[in-house]
Amino acid sequence: MRAVVQRVSSCTVRVDSKITGSIKRGILVYLGVCNNDGPNDLDYLIRKTTNLRIFPDREGKMNRSVKDINGEIMVVSQFTLCADTRKGNRPSYNNAALPEEAEKMYNSFVEELQTSGLKVATGQFQASMEVAYVNDGPVTILIDSKKIF
To answer: 149 pLDDT exceeds 90?
Structure first.
């Protein structure tokens, strides 16, 4: 699994001009489910995203997590994170999990986050979405459960 985590001041997702989710201060998580991802990948990504120390403490040092600040989380599915761009100019999406499997993992990710007690909002799986956000910092972190980067 792969994620792009962005520290945001606010985030709103729209599908067909309707808001599907909205958060205030917290993190936006773009989530890509790749082939062969399983429960260990899911656990790793949940632990990393909720415990990333990317929010400032009193001294301004990034030392606090989204849990520490009682922030909010927006999760947006994004199969393109599994793209392979090593050959040519057209990305290959062969590494992306099939939609049925990806949706199960995506839903499990969201459900696990919801048990944290934090507000969790989402986009809509397999929909064309408009994501509007204010990247605070900017702070953007890449996470790969296989620890490729």
So the answer is: no
